[in-house]
Write a structure and sequence with these properties.
The protein is an alpha/beta fold and about 290 residues long. The chain has two domains: about 5-120, Rossmann fold; about 125-280, CheC-like (Chemotaxis protein chec, 3-Layer(aba) Sandwich). Helices cover about 40% and strands about 25% of the residues. It contains eight helices and 16 strands. The protein has helices at about 15-25, 35-45, 65-75, 90-95, 110-120, 125-150, 190-200, 210-235; strands at about 5-10, 30-35, 50-55, 55-60, 60, 80-85, 100-105, 155-160, 165, 170-175, 180-190, 240, 245-250, 255, 260-270, 270-280. The strands form four sheets. Strands 8, 10, 11, 12, 13, 15 and 16 form a seven-stranded antiparallel sheet that branches. It has a five-stranded parallel sheet with strand order 2-1-3-6-7, sandwiched between helices. Helix 6 (about 125-150) crosses helix 8 and helix 7 crosses helix 8. It is elongated and about 65 Å long.
Length: about 290
């Protein structure tokens, strides 16, 4: 793979020197630098980088104005903010201006290297995820059942079709964020939830809320463990799990997700059938620091 070609935008010669040395030492190719809006336009046109690191504060301009100027020249160039400033408002404005990443000074070598490589990852990374995510989520579910209930369920009716479904009564939905976004759904009947909760709590649940909370926590552990297993295969994925949302009641329909790859199966357990559905797409990644 060709080296990622980078231009540094910063008005501080000291910061340019530090960042240039760091990037070169980590296998990137630093083409040059700029310290003003006019210099940015000139350098981008002449050097045509793959990625630009952007300071937020410069005389007469700021990082967002420079980012817009870069994308007016070439919308394919990735920009990451490298700044001592970071707050919710700046981050919101950065994302609105199509910034691909945001990292705070002083820059950590491993953090910025991982961020850049994640942003610049190509189609091969998504194909890698496609090749094994369904197997890993199956393995993780088997592991959860084995550890918590001492049972081993069976997967039946496996499918890669992304279709809408009718709920059995309880649907647990978890978002997955990282380089690629995803969605995991576990759907089951109230009877299955009740039987599982009894085993996990080793008593009758106090009420429906406790029963549903138990299942939400189990689903969170399941998705988190599977995501960690995928991250161990390739840390560029950086998958993390959002808190679960639980829907329950009669006549619940599970809409077809905006997913480019999906896998579903029925988990035939001693407690009843559970529909498992997991999928990913190439949507916007979760990109701001905390890699």
């Amino acid at each position: 793979m060709n080296k990622i070609r980078i231009v540094i935008v910063d008005d501080s010669p000291f910061q340019i020197s530090l960042l240039s040395d760091l990037l070169n030492e980590n296998g990137f190719e630093v083409l040059g630098s700029a310290g003003s809006l006019d210099e940015v336009k000139e350098v981008i046109k002449s050097l045509k980088p793959d990625l630009v690191t952007m300071d937020m504060t410069m005389p007469g301009t700021d990082g967002l104005e420079c980012t817009r100027a870069i994308h007016d020249i070439d919308s394919n160039i990735k920009v990451i903010i490298v700044s001592s400033m970071m707050d919710d408002e700046i981050v919101r404005k950065a994302r609105k201006n199509h910034v691909s990443g945001y990292i705070q000074k002083p820059v950590d070598s491993e953090e910025i290297t991982l961020l850049i490589n994640r942003i610049m990852a190509n189609e091969e990374l998504f194909q890698e995820l496609e090749s094994y995510y369904s197997k890993i989520f199956k393995e993780s579910l088997l592991d959860i059942f084995n550890k918590l209930t001492k049972t081993v369920p069976e997967f039946i009716n496996e499918s890669t079709n992304n279709i809408a479904q009718s709920s059995r009564g309880v649907s647990i939905v978890l978002g997955i964020i990282g380089k690629y976004s995803g969605r995991l759904i576990l759907d089951m009947s109230y009877e299955t939830v009740s039987k599982l909760s009894n085993v996990l709590l080793k008593r009758e649940p106090k009420d429906n809320e406790e029963m549903l909370n138990v299942m939400g926590e189990i689903a969170n552990m399941y998705a988190g463990n599977a995501s960690s297993m995928i991250n161990k295969k390739n840390k560029l994925f950086g998958l993390r799990v959002a808190p679960p949302t639980i829907f329950h009641g009669e006549s619940i329909n599970i809409s077809k997700g905006e997913l480019e790859t999906s896998f579903s199966a029925i988990v035939n357990s001693e407690f009843g059938e559970i529909t498992m559905s997991i999928g990913f797409n190439r949507g916007d990644e979760e990109w701001i620091s905390n890699i």
